[in-house]
Specification:
Length: 411
């Protein structure tokens, strides 16, 4: 057990790096004159707020001691690794010292489980009380709730935090039972449900909540993962689901090889699909189907959906509804707004779209402009897919002697 504060910091910040379920985008805090951390729309470490600011927070564990033995976790009880634990006072002091030095705008606090779930949550609560009441810290705090802890402790922490999370980690009960026998989906979601219901009872704005799903540690398909995410969004339980490509840290027969690479591209595609769920009115059944249960790693999810649903295309730019336009690959919400505004005055052509600075690199295979349609690629699934993933070869033109002399001013 490490006692030196610097050694503790190194161990516990390093142990926290595998948790990606922390965000504060859109979170607002109330400014109170004379108090520290009076910020608004704060953000997470190395992330960006809606207004484009890059912001940071202290991301650390209270302790990496844990009584659980989750197969995928570096901090599991059966691992022989250096262990450390902050006292609530040490954690609060470090947070304030980092804030005063302008290193951070807030705190993301997670923890292993030391002794019991309630004991760990009590330590977290003590640290938050020191920050909020003693130091008058009014900045952003995100707390990862401990599954199976008492609802009284959850209620007190929710009152002091700006955001909370509870990580499901694995998409199915079968995988949880195999790799994390101490956890169940019900235990993980219980504190989040309580926090949501508590805010509804008191007619308050729900606290921001999130979770993390590990991608690639178990055999579940993208369809399984997006189905779960969609259900959590539909129940108004979560603001965000975070997807984390599995990084092999333990050698276990139930996990991918220790030398296997994290599925980073798959993680990226899931984030793109999640965006379609939350902002483009797609359902998970549309994005991934029984025929195609996994996302195409060569295509973004909207293009993947489009080539599998060519019956809706080509779509006429001048007559399609807003909802239809949003489903055209390569055209986002801002582009749709420009199209709807411009076509009130004239029928749009491909040249008009270029003048509006709307990229048609992908869209041209799925649209007509004033009945004009691209002729280069036949309107068949495989032809369009090939055209979308094939890199464009740009011709390199060797400058002539005249071109060179005109640039340099020499004969």
């Amino acid at each position: 057990m490490k006692n030196d504060i610097y050694e503790k910091m190194e161990i516990l910040s390093n142990s926290a790096k595998y948790d990606v379920s922390c965000s504060s985008s859109g979170v607002e805090t109330n400014y109170k004159k004379g108090e520290l951390g009076a910020t608004h729309t704060s953000g997470i470490c190395h992330s960006f707020t809606p207004d484009g600011r890059c912001v940071s927070l202290l991301k650390v564990l209270l302790t990496n001691i844990c009584i659980y033995d989750c197969a995928y976790c570096i901090n599991r009880i059966s691992n022989d690794i250096p262990r450390a634990v902050f006292t609530p006072r040490e954690l609060a002091d470090i947070t304030i010292n980092f804030y005063k030095r302008n290193y951070i705008e807030g705190l993301f606090l997670s923890s292993g489980i030391v002794k019991t779930e309630d004991h760990t949550m009590t330590l977290i609560l003590k640290a938050l009380k020191i920050l909020r009441y003693e130091y008058k810290f009014n900045g952003y705090i995100h707390v990862k709730l401990i599954p199976a802890s008492s609802m009284e402790l959850v209620e007190q922490i929710v009152k002091l935090a700006n955001r909370v999370s509870s990580n499901i980690e694995l998409p199915s009960d079968k995988s949880l039972k195999l790799l994390a026998p101490n956890k169940t989906k019900e235990k993980v979601l219980q504190p989040l449900k309580f926090a949501r219901d508590l805010s509804l009872e008191k007619n308050q704005k729900p606290i921001g909540m999130s979770t993390q799903l590990i991608v690639g540690a178990t055999p579940e398909s993208d369809r399984d993962i997006l189905k779960l995410s969609s259900a959590l969004y539909d129940k108004a339980l979560l603001k965000r689901v975070y997807y984390s490509a599995y990084i092999p840290v333990n050698d276990d027969r139930n996990l991918p090889s220790i030398v296997s690479k994290p599925p980073m591209l798959r993680e990226h595609r899931l984030y793109q699909a999640d965006w379609l769920l939350r902002f483009y009115d797609f359902s998970w059944e549309e994005i991934v189907t029984d025929e195609f249960p996994n996302l195409d790693e060569d295509l973004d999810p909207k293009a993947f959906w489009a080539i599998n649903n060519l019956k809706y295309f080509p779509m006429e730019i001048n007559t399609a509804s807003k909802e239809e336009l949003l489903r055209i690959p390569g055209i986002g919400a801002r582009g749709v707004f420009k199209i709807l505004k411009a076509r009130r005055f004239k029928r749009l052509t491909f040249d008009d779209l270029k003048k509006l600075k709307i990229s048609i690199k992908k869209a041209k295979y799925f649209i007509t402009c004033d009945k004009e349609f691209q002729k280069q690629v036949p309107f068949y699934r495989e032809n369009i897919r090939t055209a979308l993933i094939k890199p464009e070869v740009k011709k390199i033109i060797q400058p002539s002697l005249f071109d060179i002399s005109s640039i340099t001013g020499e004969l």
